[in-house]
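Example is below:
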Amino acid sequence: MPAPAMTAQQIREAESVAMRAVPEHVLMARAADAVAAESEAILASRVGRIARARVVVLAGSGNNGGDALLAGARLHYRGAEVTAVMVGPGAHEHALGECEAAGTAVVRADVDAGRAAEAVARADLVIDGIVGVGARPGLRSPAAELVAAIPDGTAVLAVDVPSGLDVDSGAVEGAHVSADVTVTFTAPKPCLVKQPAAASAGRVVVADVGVPRRGT
């Protein structure tokens, strides 16, 4: 039986409990492992290989961006050509450091919008780590423009939820990511099971990262 959905507030409360016993960086590493594994499966299916496959990580400044960046570093170590596009005012420092240590190309969208858009246009896979469960619906610049630049047919994997959706409802308001696969953590979020938002989630994979589900 599918796990029941958890709201953004319920997830935050569950994560707070989990982090009393498990450090945040461990939870992020588990999330990144799940995203990287699903990314490898997508590339194997769509491209036929991981080596030299072009992967673009769209990373915001929060923890979702950190999860995506860590996954990008893992894929780069496994032979993919990864470009991390920073779409927020900052970045998750530890995760960005891992990307840089791995040799991943890093582009700031607010500094070099042309290079960021070119990377998106050439990607075999785009990993959406722009915003997470705490964000308001709709995407703003430069994220909205980069998402709009993703070519039809390019595989898109969303981290936790497709960025721009209203997490706690099935409503769709403004620019948002339409994913082929969403790797969500602990439990589905309402936007992943309620229409019309669920149509933008694609196939939903629920990854257990060690955060207790509601009622467990």
Q: What stands out?
A: The domain at 8-207 is CATH 3.40.50.10260 (Rossmann fold). DSSP finds seven helices and seven strands in the chain. The chain has a mean pLDDT of 92. The first helix runs from residue 8 to 18.
